[in-house]
Structures are given as C-alpha cells and as structure tokens.
Amino acid sequence: MLAQQQQIQFSAFSGLYDLIVPKDNLLRKINELIDFTFIHEELADKYCPNNGRTAESPIRMFKYLLLKTIYTVSDVDVVERSRYDMSFKYFLDMSPEGEIIDPSSLTKFRKLRLKDADLLNLLINKTVSIAIEKGIIRSRSIIVDATHSLSRSNPYSALEVLRERSKLLRKAVYAIDEDMKGQMPEKNDSDDLEKELAYCKELEKRIESDQTLSLIPAVKEKLNLLKETVEDTQENYTLSKDKDARTGHKSADSSFFGYKTHLAMTEERIITAAVVTSGEKGDGPELPKLLEISQSNGIEVDTVIGDSAYSGKENLDLTGRQDIKVVARLNPSIAQGSRKDEDRFDYNKDADMFVCPAGHLAIRKARQGKKNRGKNQADTYYFDVEKCKVCPLRENCYKAGAKTKTYSVTIKSGLHRQQIAFQETDEYKEKTAHRYKIEAKNSELKNVHGYGRATSYGITNMQMQGALAIFTVNLKRIIKLNA
After folding, report:
1. Most CB within 10 Å of its CB: which of 135, 240, 310, 428?
2. How far, in Å, CA of 409 to CA of 377, rounded?
C-alpha cells in the first residue's frame, strides 16, 4: 500500500543537517533544485492504494537509485552509506537516526515499479523543463551523436569476469596488508566455471572472517562487487546472456557488443532527447526521433549539428521541410535510395561501410562508373558471402548459390548542391565548432557515471540506466549554469 504522500521525518536531531551538510553540497543543491513529487505521481498506479503494508516511499527508492548513479556504487554500498553519511540521509529525507532499507528492496523497486515506466523520457522532460524555466537554454541548436555501452557480458566470459573481480579484491586487500598473500585460498588454474565459483566463495569467506579488513571501504566495495557477480553467474550461469545486445562497429577494424544511446543536446550542454538501441543500429536513422522528442520537450530547433552519419537524404528532406539547417558534412554513401525501411542497410560513418540488417559490416567497396558520362556513379559494397549463406535473414536478401552479395548506392550528382554550398559558409563553420561538446558529454556519462557498460541485461534495463545517468548529468549542468 502506498501512502498518499511522503511523510516528512520529524526528529530532535534534524538540526544536525544544517551543521554537517554544507550549503554547496551537491545533494543539497539537487534537493533544492527539483521537487521529486513527480515520481510519486508517476508511479502511484504501480502500488495498491488500500491493501497490504505501507510501502517505502517511491521518492526515497528513486533517490537511492539516483545516488547509485551519482557515485557509481552497488546496491549494498549505497544503502550502507546511507546508514552513516549525513548528506545521503539528508538527500533521502531520512531522520538522522532513521532505519535504512534492505538492499534487496532496490531490485524489487526496479523490477516491479519501474519496469513499464517511460523513465527515460520522463526524466529528460523534467530536467529540460527546469532548464527552460530558469532561462538556461537560449540556443536553438541541437547537437546529435551516439555513444556505445558494452553489454554487461562483453567482452569477457563469466570465468574471465569472476577472475577480474577477484583480482581487484585481492589487490585492494594487499594494498592494506601485504601479509595477506600467504593466507589466501589457492587459485583455480583450470577453465572450470564451477571451480572458479567455489574459489570466489572461499575468497569471500576468508576476507569476511577478518572483520577489521572487510569493513575498510576500499575492500568492502570490491567484495560486494564480487558477491554480486557470483550471484549473477549462479542465476544465469553465464554473463554473456544478453539477448538484446548486438555487435556494433566503431571502425572498420573495431567492434563492440552492446548498445547505443543516441543523444540530442543543446549548445548549453543540456540533453534534450535520448533513444537507446542495440549496438548495430546506424546513427542517422535516429535523427527524426531525436528531433521530435526535443521539440516535444519544448526546444525550438533551427539547426542540427552532427557528423556525416546524419546528412542522409531522408534527414535532409525532413529538416528541409521544417526550415532546419543541418550542420553535418555530406557523404555520398548515405544517400540510401528508396528501399523500404525493413530492407534498409545502415551506413556506419566510423567504418565508412554499410551494415546489413543482420548487423554484418561490408568487407570492401568499389566505385562503379565514370564521372560526367551520363549515368550516375555508384558505390558498391561487398559482404562476406559465407555469412550470408547461413544468415537467418537471408530470405529475400541472398540468392542461394550466389558467389557475391552486394549493396549499391547511387551517387546523385547535384542532389545536395544546396547543402554543399551551405558547408562553405561562415555560419556552418561557426556551428560545427560546437560539436565537440557532445563528445565531452559522452565521456562524462561513461567515465564519471558508469555508462560505458550496462549494469543489467536487456534493453529495458539499459534505458533505465540511461535515464538515471542523463538525469544526473542534466541536474549537475543546470546547477552549474544556475549558480
């Protein structure tokens, strides 16, 4: 049962917050910036209004998840820190002597309360609304790009992940007490996963037996990460089970297994839209969604800034109808013709190759025809026919017995003359200088808030992780610009 509203915690010790939590503390500033009652309103229908025990406040549970994202810690550690960290208690609207939740409650909250909520768009809309209300967003440009996140299972097997986590734990222990080297259990040198699990459990038991050592934060955090990995491995047996993740390409010779988050951001570095896809999806086709979401969130757009992936014919047609300029260098390879959406091959600007619907990258390309000879030239992309022979999508794509599989793109001379002329203007050159900002934002998401790797399996969980990470960086940016 959900109470009608979050109950304010009255305590004789509440005055401690004014003494201990500084005025410039980030969590205090976030609490002062945003009214979190919108979370209560959004999730009210996920709870029974008149039956069962009174549930923990959804606002407090959401704030726990937000703290996890801000400080990149595990469920166990964020709850434990809320036991003694006064800034956490203040942020969570707890009384100083208040009881903490059980860490397992966070898993239930994610699965039962947030599962069907459109958290990504909800949280972006909220922060954009605050930025507009405070007059922070003045530009009418959006900068677009995509950043990749590795699947939780990639690039290691379950065995390799366990070994890496146990290695980090031992390293943290030895940094404090090098004499512990002689007291550790014997490592598993085989490739037997069951033996590795047994070793990790014995390692956990050995370190936990020394209560002084196991309570040191640097050791405790690594210990809890190893425990979570062991539990997850036992549940799924392998950490590579991620049905929604796909192989994407960062260049012709570099790939990753995971997801892409397509972002739109203002020149003031406020993210206005995000779309999470599997890793093989192209960047350009997501521009219409990013533009639509940004506009629905209240952003007036007259310019789109991006790289060559966004200068496809469809995007130029769409933006042209809205009198929106596209600051993205043309590449003739992305004029994809008139194939149906389900048959479209996506252009990967990093590899300068097309990717088939199954996610396979072309292995080479060749230019056909000659300039100024009546017929338009074409770029022909060649795919690995051995993969085509066994591809589950080969029907209507690969003809049985064919020795090659190609995809040709006509280079239509004169089609983009207006865009070519725009590329030579001072306005284009001035606007393209803003593109670096989104690369810095991608770096912040990954390196500061753990967005370089998925924390759970599946695209729904990736969207939830993205929602919290983007909400965090937007709040931080608003606080900085509003200072």
Report:
1. 310
2. 9
Helices (H) and strands (E) in the chain, counts: 19, 11
Mean pLDDT, range 149-155, rounded to an integer: 78
| Residue extents of the structural domains in the chain | 16-117, 138-152+247-330+416-467, 158-236, 342-415
394/384 Cα distance (integer angstroms): 12
- Which region, left, alpha or beta, applies to residue 185 given φ > 0 means left and ψ of -120 to 50 means alpha? beta
- Residue 354 tokens read as 């097309």
Average pLDDT estimate for 45-49: 66
Element (H, E) at 248: strand 246-251
Rounded Cα–Cα distance for residues 189 and 195 (Å): 9
Residues whose CB falls within 8 Å of the CB of residue 19, separated by 6 or more in sequence, listed in order: none
Contacts of 252 (CB under 8 A, 6+ apart): 350, 351, 352, 353, 361
Alpha-carbon dihedral 464, 465, 466, 468, rounded to 10 degrees: 90
Could you tell me the pLDDT band of residue 375, with boundaries at 50, 70 and 90? low
Give per-residue burial for 438-475: e unless 16+ CB within 10 Å, then b: beebbebbbebbbbeebbebbbbbbbbbbbbbbbbbbb
Sign of the torsion formed by the C-alpha atoms of 461, 466, 467 and 473: positive
The whole-number pLDDT of residue 323 equals 95
- Report the chain's terminal Cα–Cα distance, integer Å: 40
Can you give the pTM of this predicted structure? 0.72
CA 36 to chain centre: 22
Least confident of 108-112, 338-342, 424-428, 463-467: 338-342
Residue of 235 and 117 predicted with greater confidence: 117
CA distance 414 to 339: 21
Q: Which CATH number fits domain 138-152+247-330+416-467: 3.30.420.10, 3.30.870.10, 1.20.120.530, 3.40.225.10?
A: 3.30.420.10
Residue 342 has pLDDT above 50, yes or no: no
